[in-house]
Amino acid sequence: MTPRILIVAGSDSGGGAGIQADIRTVTMLGGHPMTAITAITAQNTLGVSGVHPIPPEMVAQQMQVCIDDIGVDAVKIGMIGSAATAHAIADVIETLRNVAIVFDPVMIASSGAVLADDDTTAAFGRLMRLATLVTPNCPELVALGGEQAVLATGATLLAKGGHAEGDIITDRLIGPEGEIARWSGTRIETRHTHGTGCTLASAIAEGLGRGLALPPAVERARLFVREALTKAPGLGAGHGPMGHHLVRPKDWPGV
Fold it and tell me: Could you tell me which residue ranges the Pyridoxamine kinase/Phosphomethylpyrimidine kinase domain spans (predicted)?
């Protein structure tokens, strides 16, 4: 089976994050990526210069036509753009049954650009209640109200440790009953980290879409991200893209 992964996110003109990173990730892992673009951004490795939101009804229409014809095994939600778009996405998600939903609550780009205003962040609560997994980094988790606030929505939480201090990064998978699993690894020293969050969430969605349970899906996704970081091609003067195209998951034992 080829997992059908619907990606709802913004476009990154520099190709490092957003829809572009999502497509590359799902493709390299063997899934079929479908897209609903929420916003067009003008950005490169140095930062975001402009954002043009897509009308909410067009975002929902992109989602629905893919679902109606091709079907869907998992959905990854990234940059949303507005509260109205968040609710339009939720309206479509609510019609799905037995489909894994991975919500990466994108709020701030690697460059520091704010990608979600207060109204949009407030609307995240509805999406978290529909999500299988929520994948915030440390600052995003604080903005969402902390671990308990996320868990209170009924979603499982992947609390990512990449923004924490120290040479060891620890990611924790937490459910309503407590910690399910944790993974630790040495920090990979590189400035080419653009799109790590997008890539991780899309890789998890691809794993869930092919029938993996959450812990192995997260473990596999972390392996993909770490290998892509080590193979970054060194493009751009700022936070450059990772080397998605150089990762060979089919060579991994047991994958």
Answer: 12-242
